[in-house]
Design goal:
Length: 246
């Protein structure tokens, strides 16, 4: 089994801003300001992967099995396969821009979006890349994530869209709600009682593989270590505002 990057390493790593894969001409280039806000009380998000792309690209689809990229984001907070998809796969020719996070201060990596916080950054697109998709892990879950898929970008300068986003279950890992099966930063970012602390893991456990499809997430049920009044939520869990600025 290939070891995934832990979220601890991801949060401490240098911020990733991927260059335009299908370079835009001066006439077709467009620039957008994107703001993502975490609406939950106790679910931090991993740094978001946001991409502008053509209709040939589909990041995820409810009712279908999760891709490797979504599986790794939802289970391990690992953006590696998603970055590879955006830069190295056959689909990359249809992706104009893909942004993981911005470096907000010199020497700092991309931090998580904590409950109640917002993240604002710039996204570009090229001719034909009229859609936007986004995915972030719900850190205190087994395989929960939040995002949007193939939403049309604002067409004219000054136009903006505002969307809410619900929580999804990737269907790739059983929801044990056991901290031993959840990425370690959950405990660092959302406090739990000392007697509940467990090492956590940035690896996928084959024994917990679910083999399901992407569905709406049932939320935290309180069946093990996760607490409904701390880690739970009601949909929507986020908003995303996109404005065309140039």
């Amino acid at each position: 089994m290939r070891r995934a990057k832990t979220l601890v390493a991801l949060i401490g790593a240098a911020a990733l801003t991927l260059a335009a894969i299908a370079p835009a001409s001066a006439d077709s280039a467009a620039t957008y300001t994107v703001t993502i806000t975490n609406l939950t009380d106790g679910q931090p998000f991993t740094p978001p992967l946001v991409a502008s792309h053509r209709p040939a690209v589909d990041l995820y689809e409810v009712g279908e099995p999760a891709s490797e990229a979504i599986k790794e984001i939802a289970e391990n907070g690992n953006l590696g396969p998603a970055v590879a998809f955006a830069t190295e796969s056959k689909a990359s020719k249809h992706i104009a821009d893909a942004v993981v996070a911005l470096r907000e201060e010199p020497g700092e990596g991309p931090p998580p979006i904590l409950p109640g916080e917002s993240r604002t950054f710039t996204l570009t697109s090229s001719n034909g890349a009229t859609l936007v998709s986004w995915a972030s892990m719900l850190i205190c879950t087994n395989d929960g994530f939040v995002g949007i898929d193939s939403v049309r970008l604002p067409k004219k300068v000054g136009d903006a869209i505002s969307l809410t986003a619900d929580a999804y279950d990737a269907g790739t890992e059983i929801n044990t709600e056991d901290l031993a099966d959840i990425v370690p930063p959950c405990q660092e970012l959302v406090g739990v009682a000392d007697d509940m602390r467990a090492p956590g893991t940035g690896m996928s456990d084959p024994d917990l593989a679910e083999g399901g499809v992407i569905t709406s997430h049932d939320g935290v049920l309180g069946i093990a270590d996760l607490l409904t009044d701390v880690h739970g939520w009601t949909d929507p869990v986020a908003t995303i505002v996109i404005e065309r600025t140039d």
